[in-house]
Each structure stands twice: as C-alpha cells, then as structure tokens.
Amino acid sequence: MIKFFRHIRKRMLKENRFTRYTLYAIGEIVLVVIGILIALQINNWNEDRKAHFQEVEILNNLRTDLQADFKELSYQIASKKKMVLEYRNCLEILSENKEGSIEELKRDLKSIFQVGGLSLNKTTFNNLETTGEIRLIRNKALADSIVAFYNSGYEGWETALRDYTRNITAPYFLSFDHITGFSFTDDDGTIRTMPFNPSDFSKPGRTLEEYRQDYFIINTLRQKTWNLEALIDKYQGLQLYVERLDRGIEHYLDSP
Description:
Largest sheet: 2 strands, antiparallel
Number of strands: 2
Number of helices: 8
Radius of gyration: 35 Å
Distance between the termini: 42 Å
Helix content: over 70%
Shape: rod-shaped
Strand content: under 5%
Strand order of the largest sheet: 1-2
C-alpha cells in the first residue's frame, strides 16, 4: 500500500502536476491524522473499558468486606450489650438494690478483663490507599463515603477502654481478690480455663460487703458501663453506614 502511494507521488512529480500533487499530499496527511485519531480513540476506549472492569472488581470486593464488617459489628454490639447488662447487675448488687451473692457478682465481673474490640476488614481499602486505585471509583461522592467509613475514628473509644483495663482495672482487681471462673476459647475451639481455684490457697477471698465498700470497683463498673454504651451507639451508627454504603455501591453497579 505504501509503495502504491509512493508510486502515485512520483508519477505526479514527474508529470509536473504540482497542484494535484499538493492536494494529494494534503489528503494523505489528513488520512494519516484521521488514522492516528482513530487509533487513539480505540486506545482510549480500551483503557476506559479496562478501568471500568477494575472499578467493578474493586467495588464488588468492597461489598464483600462491608458485608463481613456488618456481621462483625452485629457480634460486637451483642457482646457489648451483654457486658452492659452484667455490669448493671453488679451495680445493683453493690448498691443493695437487689439481693445477690458474691458468686453472682463474680460471675458477672468476669468480662471486666476483656479488651477485644471491633476489627473491620480493611484489606481492599488499604490496598486502594496504598496503590492510589481509589481514583478508579469514578463516583466521587461514593469514593468519599468509602474513605469516611474506614476513617470513622471508632478506635479512640476502644483504645481508651483497652488502656484503662490493662493499666488500671486489671492490676487493681488482681491485687484485690482471687480471680475465678475465667476461661476462653482458642481459635481451634479448645476451651482453656484458668488453673487452680481459690480454695487451693489459704488466703480467703473478699466478701460481698468488702466489694460494696470499694469505691474503685463501683466507679470502674459505672465508667465501663458508660463507655460501653457509647461504643454500642458508635457501632450501631457504623452498621447503618455500612447498610447505606452497600446499597449505594449496589445501585451504582446496577446503573447504566
């Protein structure tokens, strides 16, 4: 094809048909430019198509993470509500608003040492931030909502509870009385219980009246109850956010 056009140019020059040659040259340039523009358009179309497939994959992965986060939030809310009920029962016993035994009090105090908290699945989001691929989400409002969710700041409440438990509550309780009935379940389902019982030692445990006279224990229960209720509110707000975000992503993916 190139040889064919070259042959035409040479023939026109040889025949001194300059005007026709000029028009032909201009036409050839136009054809080349059009060809380049078409090639660029095809390339842009391919790039847009590739970016669209990446965006869909990212959003589907985020939906999977969000659905797992919703379940995790449900578990944490239920767990924290149970702890609040236990601490309120302890406070009722300590304030003598209800009859209770030292065994019942210690049963509901067992969770006072728990420091576990919410663990959101940030795998996809962290990867988006690291690679900068968050820009592939073309809907800016949706992208901003995703960023806002994963930077919601719930960790502040959990850090306060965890630090207070580890640094203040646990050391005090460990020196105040025998710790009984504590157990936990390993990842493989094995139940592990604290070895030895208070009866194995000569030092007697504290009485219910001694617990009732201890301001630290009373105030710790009040504070942890308040903190947990605030954390539950935060988790419930995050759950609503997850639902809205999941619906928003679904609607965006279904839109033409």
